[in-house]
Amino acid sequence: ATALARAEIAKQINIQVKAMDKTYQNLTDTADGSSSGSTFESVSKQVTNQKLSGSRATKLDYIDFPDGSQKLCVMVTMSPATTAALYKEIVKGSTRQLSPQHESVLFQEFKAYKAQQELDSELDKGNG
After folding, report:
1. Are 75 and 57 in contact (CB under 8 A)?
2. Could you point out which of 46, 79, 99, 127 has its C-alpha 20 to 30 Å from the C-alpha of 31?
3. Separation between Cα atoms, residue 38 and residue 68, nearest integer Å
4. What does the pLDDT look like over 35-69, one tens digit per residue?
5. How many CB atoms within 10 Å of residue 31?
């Protein structure tokens, strides 16, 4: 269960990096008018595999499923400091030159996906 939770974190990071890259492309003005996002994604996969070793299981419980079965579920989290360090390593590894303003915007984009998922989850609970 813990390994599956870590794999889910890796998927979420990949999605966050794609969103961050999209924002980066919107913010970037290049001499030839084009930019590429593959660097962020490639670096994300490499750095994520290294950083997930710092994640930890913070909640473990058996959950009743609608089909009547119980499944062992684990919540795996990373500290805010680890998240910030992960972001910095992704940007550094991408070799992109970012202004402090762009870096701040991208970090907010990097964190925004998680916040939106949590909000959606809470709304679903209220409607269910």
Report:
1. yes
2. 46
3. 44
4. 555 667 777 777 776 667 677 888 888 989 899 99
5. 5
